[in-house]
Each structure stands twice: as C-alpha cells, then as structure tokens.
Amino acid sequence: MTTKVLIVEDELNITESLTFLLSREGFEVTSCADGAVAIQSVDDTAPDVLILDVMLPGLDGFEIIRRLRADGEHRNLPILVLSAKGQRRDRMTAETSGADMFMPKPFSNSEVVDAVKKLAG
Amino acid sequence: MSRTITGLKIREKRRSLGIKQNELAQRVGISPSYLNLIERNKRGIGGALLNAIGRELSLSFDEMDGSAERRLRDQLQSLAEDPQIGADVMADNTIDEVIARYPAWARAAARAYRGFQDADSEVDALTDRLAHDPALAQAVHEMLTEVTALRSTAEILADPREIEPMQRKRFEKIVDEQSAKLARSCAALASYFDHTSEKRRPMSAVEEAEEYLHRNNPAAEIENVAGSLTDLGNNDGLDLETVLSRNTTTPVRFEPDWGRNRRLEAYAMAWAEERVEAGLSPHLTELPEAAANVAKERLTLQLADAVRLPNQRMIFLGSNLNWDIDALTAAMDGDSGLIFRRIAALHRDGAPRAGWISTDASGNTLARGGDLDLLPRTRKLDCPLWPIHRCMVGSSTLVPVDISGTGERIACAMARSDGLIRNMLVFPASQSPNPPSNTMPTRVGSSCRICSHDPCASRREPSVINF
Lengths: 121, 467
What we know:
The complex is a heterodimer.
Chain A: E1 4-8, H1 12-24, E2 28-32, H2 35-45, E3 49-53, H3 61-70, E4 79-83, H4 88-97, E5 101-104, H5 109-120
Parallel strand pairs in A: 1-2, 1-3, 3-4, 4-5
Chain B: H1 2-17, H2 21-28, H3 32-39, H4 47-57, H5 61-64, H6 67-81, H7 95-101, H8 103-132, H9 134-158, H10 165-199, H11 205-216, H12 219-236, H13 240-246, H14 260-277, H15 289-308, H16 311-320, H17 325-331, H18 336-345, E1 355-360, E2 365-370, H19 387-390, E3 397-403, E4 410-418, E5 421-428, E6 442-444
C-alpha cells in the first residue's frame, strides 16, 4: 500500500521540489498552501505523514499541530515541521506543540526524504 | 561642592604654572592670606574676583565655578554606584579630591564610563532588534525560504538520475526565478542594515565629531575666513606672519630654533583657535562636550591649514606639480601633513577626490577627512597590507589597492611617513592624479579575524567566519 504524504507549504517552488522528490521515492503526495484549510486537507486525504511549514497564511503551523493533537483521530499522525525560524525557541515550541521532527530551512533533499521514510515507519 | 573644587583647582593650576601665592594675590588685588583661605576652601569665591583669577590662570569660568566639575562629579558618582563597575573602588568623599588632583584621569574615567554605557545600550538595542524586529525577522525568513527552494531544486538538477525534459525545464525555470528573488531579498536586507547603521549612534567622541564634521563641515566658511585674513595682508603689503601676529591676542611662544614655517604654524593655530572659539561653528553646542572639543580641534587645524596654504595657491601648486606629494611637500618646507590635509579638504574644490587618513607609528588612526566613502568604515586600519603601514620615511609612491566595503573597489593609495606621523590619501582609480604603477592591485582587507582573503601571506590569525 502506498504511503501518503501531505505537504502544507506556502512557497510553491518548495512544494514542487518536495513533491517531485517524494513521488520519485514512491510516496503519494498531495499539498495545500493555506494554513486555514490544512486541517480539512488532513481530514480529506488521511496522510500517513504530514510535512508542515510554520509561517503559513490563515493559521500558523504550531497552531495546526495543537489542533490536530487535540483531535483524537490525528493524535498519532507523524508530523515533520520545516521552518525558516530555526531558533532554539521555535524548535522547543514545535516539540511542545506535538511535532515529531523539526527541520530548519534550508535543508537538503536527502534529509527530508530520510526523515519522511523514518516517520512513515 | 563648587567651593571645594574651586579652591583646589586654583591651587593646583597656580602651582602647575609656577606662580607664587603672593604673586597671584597681588595680580588680582587681594591679600595673600585671603587667597590662602580661598585655596584652602575656607572662603567662598565668585563674581569679578573669580573672573580675575581665571584670566590670570587661563581657566574658563566653566572650569572655575565648578560646573564642569559638577558634571564630571555626577558621572564619576554614577560610575562608583554602578554595580557592574564596583562601588567600593571609590568612596564618595574621595571623588572631589580625584577630580581636583588628577583631572585628566577623572575625565578619562568619565569618558570610559560613558563609552561603556553607550556600548551597553547599543548591545541591548541590537539584541532587542534581532529578537523582536519584525522587519528583520521577515527579511531573514524570506531569504531562508528562497534559499531552501533554490537549494532543493538545484540538488534535483544536479542529481545524475534521469529527469523528463519538460520537468527539467520546469526546474531550471524555478532556479532562475528563485535566484532572482534571492538577489532581491539580499539587496533589501543589505539596504536594511545600511539604513540602521546610519542611525547608529557613534561609539566615541572622536567618531561622533568626525561624523558631525562630515555632515556639517563649514568648509566654505573656513576658506572665506582664511581668505579674508590673507587678503588683509595682501592689501596692506604685509607678510602672513605679521598679519597673523597682529590679529592674534593669545601669546604665542616660540623655540629659538624654529624656522619661518614652524612660527607660521604656531601663529596660525593660535589665530584659528580664537576664531573657532569665537563661534566659527556655533552649532557645535549640539554635540556632547567631549565630541565638541574634538570637533573644535579639527576645525582649528583646518582653519590654520587654510590660512597657511590658501585654496588658490594649493590648487595652483598641485596642478603645476601634478599632485606629486613629495614635490608639494618640498614646496612647503617639508610639511607633508599640511599637503595631505589640504588635498583632502579641497577635494570638492579642484583637488583630486580623495579620502585622507593619518595614523601614529603603531597604526592607530589619529584623524580622517576628505571623502570618507573612499576609506574603510572602521577607524583602525588593521590590515598590514595598507600602504600606510609600509610607507617610506620622506617619500611617497602611488600604488593600486583592491578595497572591498568602500565606495570604490579599486583605488590608488599614496602614503608617506614623517617622523611619528603617517599620512595616506586614497583616490578612486579612475580619478587618480597620475598613473599608478603597473602592478596588480594589493588586496587590502579588514582585520584578519573577519577577513576572507585567502591565501594571504600577511594573515596573523585564522578567520572566525567560515567563508
């Protein structure tokens, strides 16, 4: 069965690169660019791994994680946070919000692919 | 407070001038015993008597009535009370004595403390800005996002695995778009830092004075005032030394072995100091006292230079001698400093465009002038490759230099050492007064610690920045 990945990222060129990379690795990739519809997208696509940017229009990434974790259905959804805010404080916020992994931008493609593979189990 | 300071001040100054108590008392028309009481702080003093003693001892009213000391005392009191410095080092009742007996040390301590406070405030402000400035945070965020997209796409293109032609074309387009966006973000960020550094308060009195003079230098007024004096001499058929001596009230002392040029310099400085004190640049009151004093010294020297070597004569000599520093120096009895300073001062009035810097033998900057955009932003020229650190005594050579971080990338520098003082002019390569040697420009950098030039035979320590 194909592993599904949802990318929530408002920089479309990053989304395009990640989609290409992960598709080539055999993942089924969908994406959205608006924080406000991210939770709905999770409900609609039921991903196995969520890749989430922090600074998003509509709703920021940390708040999306908190809401997903508060919802019993997504309590265990593996979440990889990608953020240009690489400060220690943001990393801690990601952890306390319930993210599984935090990766500061800029990252290398192999790091992301390896992280997704690891989270997908 | 002022009585304590004033009495001690009078005694210290009188002794330093070698004037006996009864002699001073006689000059100001009081009895020696009364002066003794004043000096021992047993009697107050003010009004006409204070002015008379001030005149005799060359002390300003500000110094005499203790207001300068009061300010100094307040500053030292703050220093003593600052827990970061150590309150126990200076008990309250010793501050007056320190000010009276060691005024230069007291002023130095106050200046150092002001510098410490300024630096402290600036660190706080910068830390706060980095943590909370939304514009900076946004700019950095955008840049990192663009770098991420660029890096990710470039990695895909560099991957040896096959990519469909259409897909490859699409990624190439992304690289093009992202690199353009990144270039714009970098420029915006650089502009942001330029803007904020312009607003930054200078760190020292010298820097503050230099920045003020760079923005408000009354160069035209200086040339006019100097020109009026030389015109006076020309009209009356008098030589400059006579005109200066007749228009200067400050006594000028000469050493017996001084030649004409040295005497002229002494007269010109005394005359210029009087003009500056009389309000050549009244807006200097906007500056803190220490910076205003530095600015006054610079203006005094500038005015004295202008009267010794007037505008038209400098341009005439320079044009005729092809701005050859050594030939010009010989024409001015060996005073190379005057030539360097006048070229810099007249860089908008016919002399070549140039930035000027003067250092002592240990490389510390004494003064800068002219077009500061041609000089590094930092005052200290740490790089040993600057021609000013390698120049010969008594001669100068124009050499090409490759400078980054200034208004010109390639420039020509001309430096000369005379005794303990070294001077250097930096010209834009395109406006150099005469062709430099055909050698490759010497790459001059900042301090080794942050310099990217590698390899460099003059490197003293590794750079802390990974370039």
